[in-house]
Amino acid sequence: MSHYRRDHTPGGIYFFTVALEHRDTGLLVEHVDHLRTVYQRVQKQLPFRTIAICVLPNHLHSIWQLPEGDANYPQRWSLIKSGFSRLLLPVEHTSSKTRRREKGIWQRRYWEHRIRDENDLARHVDYIHFNPVKHGLTPFVCDWPWSSFHRYVARGWLPEDWAGEGADTEGRYGE
Predict the structure, then answer these.
(1) Which terminus of the chain, N or C, has less C-beta within 10 A?
(2) Which structural domains are found in the chain, ordered by start?
(3) Spatial separation of the C-alpha atoms in residues 85 and 9, rounded to whole Å
């Protein structure tokens, strides 16, 4: 069995990419209310601060800050993924998935990166907010409804036309 090396820094700030198993689906935006409900329930049960988030049809990106002394993001993601899956209609799945109590909705693993400094954080926030444009889902960041970008605009942290036409989109945003 593979041993995945993950950073578990208590109170750390982490960037995540969590994807559906089948990338040709739009489940996350089709059922964004279910995702939001489960996400908020887990956030109340095991607190963390969401610095940035963007939900796309088949994956999501987020940046979390964990509480002081807490590094247990795997449990939080497990609860979010399983809670969301339980709210959807049953789907057929393999015996391997049955043994692991999986519905075959999510990829088993996810990408995690501990944010190292303010510059790293800024690049990852930009990456998250620009992602719908990168994937051709919308021509303008401000037009994608499932993004913390709108919270950043409301707080005056970013202009509404951020990364609009003529924006530098080559290599500026990094995963």
Answers:
(1) N
(2) 13-154 (3.30.70.1290)
(3) 28
Amino acid at 78: S
Q: Which of 69-73, 101-105, 117-121 has the lowest mean pLDDT?
A: 101-105
Angstrom distances, CA of residue 5 to CA of 10, 109, 155: 16, 12, 37
Burial string for 62-97 (b: 16+ CB within 10 Å, else e) reads bbbebeeebbebeebbebbbbbbbeeeeeeeeeeeb
Q: Is the per-residue pLDDT at 98 higher than 80?
A: no
Residues 6 or more apart whose Cβ sits within 8 Å of residue 63: 13, 14, 15, 16, 50, 51, 52, 53, 115, 121, 124, 125, 128
pLDDT tens readout for residues 16-54:
999 999 988 999 999 999 999 999 999 999 999 999 999
Treating both helix axes as pointing N-terminal to C-terminal, what angle do 73-87 and 32-45 enclose, rounded to 10 degrees? 140
The tokens describing 10, both together, are 């208590």
* Cα 35 from Cα 52, distance rounded (Å): 16
Site of tokens 């290599």: 171
